[in-house]
Amino acid sequence: MTQHSNRRWRARHAVLSAVSVVAGMSFLIAAGLGSVADAHQPVIRAAADTPGASMHTVWNKGHRLAFYVTPGHLPAIVLDAGGGEDHTQWSQIVPVLARQTGDEIITYDRSGFGNSPAVSGPWTAQNAVSDLHAGLSQLGVTSKAILVSHSLAGEIAFRLVRNYPGLVAGAVLVDASLPEFYTPGEVARIVAANNPIIAKLKSLPLTASSRQLIALAYNYGPVHKAYHKLTWPTSIPVNVITSSQTPYTTSIDARAWRDAAIKFARGVANRRLVIADSGHEIPHDRPGLVITQVEDMLHMVTR
């Protein structure tokens, strides 16, 4: 893991120091959720991080979201950041993809991150899917997109491709949260680790970070038992990148994470597994590998 990503990793998980529970890492890492910046308002950034890109405000169900578009031809390449991250997670990747492919590149900030204000209540993948779909629709992306999803965004990806057939032509899942991981035993371990941490957070003065963690933990067990049953459409090809280190320090969880990626990738002939010599933060640690896999997928669906 690079020095840069080590700093980001420590910052994202700083909230756990406040509750002094080592097991809390299981809660955050299990679905690649991460922590969030301790700020009650989103951080206002420049309109875009890439020359030629622009920020677009879209609306969905009464709240606004920030989307960033680097113009180019179709199909659009849509980059969905991991938990606790915003569109800047892709800052090393967007300029290169735009230059080498000439395709339209879209990133965005989920609610509560970057330039997208927080929305009250529990976080759900269904709401996140609605937000992403609304943004893509308002930007004119209605079919054949290439979807690139890191970590938590895997849970959004699975529901997006199921809910909107034809929207995604191919995907690259970057150390993504996969249904195969959430066996009954794994979910039970995660919930057991979650409960004391969430209880402790609720007993402390609420911050933006703790509110986000509580929202993510809501109904975690039943939600992920249901997620375990989801399947990916066999018609949509996928390049699966998994990290050699995995997000876990415990051997049983690390093995389960690796096994989930292997099982998913081997399920259908149009899926490819690539193991990155990296920690979980592959977009920061191995941006070149992500770019190569996106270009490979783009060639596969457009040839």
Q: Which descriptors would you attach to this protein?
A:
303 residues; alpha/beta; Rossmann fold; eight-stranded mixed beta sheet; 12 helices
- How many structural domains can be distinguished in the coordinates? 1
* CATH architecture label name: 3-Layer(aba) Sandwich
Relative strand content: 15-25%
The percent range for helix content is: 40-55%
- Number of extended strands: 8
Largest sheet: 8 strands, mixed
Query: In CATH's first tier, which class applies?
Result: Alpha Beta
CATH topology, which one?
A: Rossmann fold
**N-C termini distance:** 35 Å
Q: Mean of the pLDDT scores?
A: 84
Order of helices and strands: HHHEEEHEHEHEHHHEHEHH
Unreliable residue stretches? 1-48
Q: What is the overall silhouette? A: globular
Radius of gyration: 18 Å
Q: Which strand order do you get reading across the main beta sheet?
A: 1-2-4-3-5-6-7-8
Q: What's the number of helices?
A: 12
SS-based structural class?
alpha/beta
- Give the full name of the CATH homologous superfamily: Alpha/Beta hydrolase fold, catalytic domain
